[in-house]
Design a protein that fits this description.
Number of helices: 6
Largest sheet: 3 strands, antiparallel
Radius of gyration: 13 Å
Structural class: alpha+beta
Shape: globular
Number of strands: 5
Order of helices and strands: EHEHHHEEEHH
Amino acid sequence: MAVKLNDKSYDFARALVERGKVVLDERDDWSEHQPSAQEENTFIAEHGIAAYEKWHLGYDDERPEGTKGRYKFPYGDFQDIHRCAVLAAESRAGQRKYIDIELATAHLHGMLETLRAAR
């Protein structure tokens, strides 16, 4: 598996943080906040796979384009970026040695912590 950073998604995530489209939740909240498979399917049906892709920091270039399985490291609920999702992605990227994704999530994490401190 060759998982790579999706630069467009990373730029989109940074823009969401800059616009304040964030949920500053707790580390372990992602299991409750993560969209279900049905919610993902509905989102794709309404907005297309390209919009779905933007909500994932990584992609597996060995998986077919236009499939949900191609996209890895989700970071939000299709409306807001979630701190818990970024933390989960950062941890998983580090475990799997996806350095570019780990660095991107660490940067997003820092941006979110700055917002959290300001609130």
